[in-house]
Design brief:
The chain is built from five helices and eight strands, in the order βββαβαβαβαββα. With about 180 residues, the chain is α/β, with parallel strands linked by helices. It has a single domain, classed as HAD superfamily/HAD-like (Rossmann fold, 3-Layer(aba) Sandwich), CATH 3.40.50. The strands form two sheets. Strands 5-4-1-6-7-8 form a six-stranded parallel β-sheet, sandwiched between helices. Strands 2-3 form a two-stranded antiparallel ribbon.
């Protein structure tokens, strides 16, 4: 079986927009800014054999704030510039009650089946409670990147990091 790093997008790979202490996704490729250390972190994890799979909620599509085409343009940029194997997106809002929207683990489980992933030896890295709960529900180890957002925080997680590079260094020390 294979191992994977499941990554949230906004707040883990790129800077989110912060409004009233809460994170929101960028609304264009021009506003999409990669966090320092992300390229190094992704390369380190890729080089030791992890699949890198982005699992992201993009409810602004359902809300009409951004088009699916603009989100997919951002994702094309990511896949063209970084060693990302797949991006699993949920374009629904909470009211849709779908299985792919975190904290539900649907997109993690779909990717795990496609790539024959051993979930208990894989990680979910996120900056919000939804990411961590999805990882726990899927059976992954979890790493919480804590930005002290003004919202619900995860109750439990495996490790707390300041950014993706610190998370990658922790993972490398764990193998």
């Amino acid at each position: 079986m294979n191992k994977a790093i499941f990554l949230d997008r906004d707040g883990v790979i790129n800077h989110p927009r912060i409004i009233d202490g809460k994170p929101y996704p960028p609304l264009s490729l021009d506003d999409f800014k990669i966090i320092d250390g992300v390229e190094k972190a992704l390369n380190l994890l890729h080089d030791v054999g992890y699949y890198l799979i982005v699992v992201t909620n993009q409810p602004d599509v359902a809300r009409g704030d951004i088009s699916k085409d603009k989100v997919e343009l951002i994702h094309s940029f990511l896949k063209s510039n970084f060693p990302i194997d797949e991006i699993k997106s949920c374009y629904h809002d909470d009211s849709d009650h779908c299985e792919c929207r975190k904290p539900n683990p649907g997109n993690i489980l779909k990717a795990a089946e496609k790539y024959n992933i051993d979930l208990k030896n894989s990680y979910m890295i996120g900056d919000r409670w939804r990411d961590i709960e999805a990882g726990i529900s899927a059976g992954c180890k979890t790493i919480f990147i804590d930005y002290s957002y003004k919202e619900k925080q995860p109750v439990t997680y495996g490790y707390k990091a300041s950014d993706l590079l610190e998370a990658a260094e922790f993972i490398l020390g764990d193998i």
